[in-house]
Amino acid sequence: MSKVFYITGSSSGLGEDLVRNLSSRGHQVIATARSITKIEHLKQLSNVRVQQLDISDSTETLKQKVDEAISFFGRIDVLVNNAGYGQSGCFEEVSMDEIRKQFETNVFGTVNLTQVFLPYFRSTATESKICTVTSGAGTVAFPTSTAYSASKFALEGFFENLDAELRASQIPVQVLIVAPGVFKTNFVDNMVKPDAEIGAYADLKHKINTFLQGISESGGDCSIGAKLIADALLGEGFAEGKTVPLRLPIGSDSVAQLVGKYRRELEVTEAWKPFAAESDAK
Q1: What digits encode the pLDDT tens for the residues 36-91?
Q2: The pLDDT value given to residue 137
Q3: DSSP per-residue codes, the chain
Q4: Is 148 part of the annotated catalytic residue set?
Q5: Of 8, 56, 2, residue with least CA distance to 31
Q6: Number of domain units in the chain
Q7: Of the candidates 172, 156, 141, 131, which has an alpha carbon nearest to the alpha carbon of residue 257?
């Protein structure tokens, strides 16, 4: 049975490729973006509708957009939170206004849209799904892009808690957090630079930028990444017959980051266990 997907951030990269992949499998897709002109071409695909959507808009506006989207195909089964942008800059460089703007879109907009969808999903008879695209930078520090990394850490926290609450309440809405590694996109080139830059961090930023440019050129294939996300959401391919985990890294680099961090954290935590235990009630 075909599903109806609502995908934010569909104008390029993983978002656009996910629209194309799902359409090719016979599913209905509502592709959204801040600029409708950037997704008009997707209307040529089978069973695809497009909608202008700025996830940082008011709750009332988002409700109107979701109601309109539901009317396109009569229902929505899966929400894919993919919209967002990258703010570069070290901790000391990014202003509070730049940090707030980053969080307004990446975090608050995503959370607000999801809250708008939840009453609808709870009212449906079939299992719904919420997929949120974060980043490897959502679990491992991303020096020189502190605000962006922190926004992805925040998303991981919000949706891990949502998953726990839905499970404990036996509400049939599945949560999936997708943490992509580096793919061949214009993401690095499109990152917003801070208004103020501090010379003390110049060498670090040069090294990181050189590294990012290198891995971007040899990064993963977006079309394959999109296929894997679709497989996970549909229970097909490698995911067929398996229980898909809450957090799913996409790309060997993302897996290596996660495994490396978890191993380091476990080792340090075990080593300092006696110290922590000193606070236990005697």
Answers
A1: 999 999 999 999 999 999 999 999 999 999 999 999 999 999 999 999 999 999 99
A2: 92
A3: ---EEEESS-SSHHHHHHHHHHHHTT-EEEEEESSGGGTGGGGGSTTEEEEE--TTS-HHHHHHHHHHHHHHHS---EEEE-----B-B-TTTS-HHHHHHHHIIIIIIHHHHHHHHHHHHHHSSS-EEEEEE--GGGTS--TTBHHHHHHHHHHHHHHHHHHHHHHHTT--EEEEEEEE--BSSSHHHHPBPPS---GGGHHHHHHHHHHHHHHHHT-B-HHHHHHHHHHHHHT-GGGTTS---SEEEESHHHHHHHHHHHHHHHHHHHHTHHHHHTTS--
A4: yes
A5: 8
A6: 1
A7: 141
In terms of DSSP bridges, do strands 4-7 and 173-180 run parallel, antiparallel, or are they unpaired? unpaired
Q: Is residue 246 part of a domain?
A: yes
Mean pLDDT taken over the chain:
96
Print the domain residue range for 118.
Answer: 4-253
| Euclidean distance between CA atoms 208 and 198, whole angstroms | 15
The answer to whether residue 247 sits within a structural domain is yes
d(CA 270, CA 179): 27
Tokens of 261: 């961090």
- Reported pTM: 0.95
Any domain includes 160:
yes
Place of tokens 């978890």: 262
The answer on pLDDT for 178 being more than 80 is yes
Q: Is residue 243 pLDDT above 80, yes or no?
A: yes
Given 6, 85, 120, 148, the catalytic residue: 148
**Given pLDDT bands bounded at 50, 70 and 90, which one contains residue 184?**
confident
pLDDT in tens, 99-149: 999 999 999 999 999 999 999 999 997 889 999 999 999 999 999 999 999
The CATH number linked to 52 is 3.40.50.720
Position 269 in a domain: no
